[in-house]
Design a protein that fits this description.
The chain has helices at 8-15, 27-67, 109-112, 145-175; strands spanning 23-25, 69-78, 87-96, 99-108, 120-126, 129-135, 177-188, 193-201, 207-215, 224-229, 237-239, 245-247. It is an alpha+beta fold. The strands form three sheets. It has a five-stranded antiparallel beta sheet. The longest helix has 41 residues, at 27-67. The chain starts with 7 loop residues before the first helix and ends with a strand.
Length: 251
């Protein structure tokens, strides 16, 4: 005899009443809503705070390209390889207007393998501020505006996706049609997460197929479970109960 993940009588009592059903967020839903708010705030702050930073960085790059002069530096120390990328710190010394100045740069081993202590390399520096210097053709790097837009876009997209997940589940629980589905396949995936495939009947009499990821599921092939599907687009379906929203209980 097939077992059920949700008792049919419970299905009738909770889901077969008039719509729209009263819905509220679960604990996870509250967390996800908070995350969406933080992501949206992050997008707004990025658009407010980073453009001035990008403008200052661009001006620094432009200033260096206008004012920098060329010279010759001597490598005085090469540090050990560090990290997965095997970066090493290169210290150098150069003459700037009759005064000896020092600088350092961190390079990947692949870019510094031909360097040795005592080697002479080209250097560029600002005469007005010799502490700003670069060797081996390097120079200051700016923060491009496209990077600002990219960061803001990532935050905004994250906020939109999390918000959409909540809205989708809220609409499905408030207005969706319930049905008893039959598990047709169960595939164990990474870290104990299962892909549950099922078939469910819709009001028109057709039988549709759906699937959902589930962790530590007690279901097996042939078992039944409760699903909710969209009235207008029955192929939109989720297993019940939902993770982000639940029915409002009235005392």
């Amino acid at each position: 005899m097939s077992k059920t993940a949700q008792d049919p009588q419970h299905l009738q009592a909770e889901l077969m009443g008039a719509t729209p059903r009263p819905v509220r967020l679960t604990g996870l839903g509250i967390f996800v809503a908070g995350l969406a708010f933080l992501l949206l705030a992050g997008a707004a702050l990025t658009l407010v705070l980073l453009p001035p930073v990008a403008a200052r960085a661009f001006e620094q790059v432009a200033r260096f390209e206008r004012e920098a002069v060329a010279g010759v530096a001597e490598i005085v120390e090469i540090g050990p390889d560090r990290g997965k990328e095997r970066r090493r710190t290169i210290k150098y010394r150069f003459d700037a207007g009759g005064q000896v100045r020092e600088g350092h740069v961190t390079l990947k081993r692949s870019r510094s393998r031909d360097l040795a202590v005592g080697a002479r390399v080209p250097v560029r520096y600002l005469p007005s501020d010799p502490e700003v210097s670069y060797i081996l053709g390097r120079g200051p790097s700016g923060l491009p505006l496209w990077a600002v837009a990219l960061v803001a876009g990532v935050f905004g997209l994250g906020a939109a996706l999390t918000g959409w997940s909540i809205r989708r589940q809220r609409a499905l629980l408030a207005e969706g049609r319930p049905a008893l589905a039959t598990v047709t396949a169960l595939t164990r995936g990474h870290k104990g997460v299962f892909k549950v495939e099922f078939e469910y009947p819709v009001l028109s009499g057709a039988v549709l197929r759906g699937s959902q990821q589930d962790s530590n599921t007690p279901l097996g092939q042939g078992d039944t479970l409760v699903v909710l599907y969209d009235r207008d687009r029955p192929e939109r379906v989720s297993c019940y109960p939902l993770s982000l929203v639940k029915l409002e209980r009235h005392s």
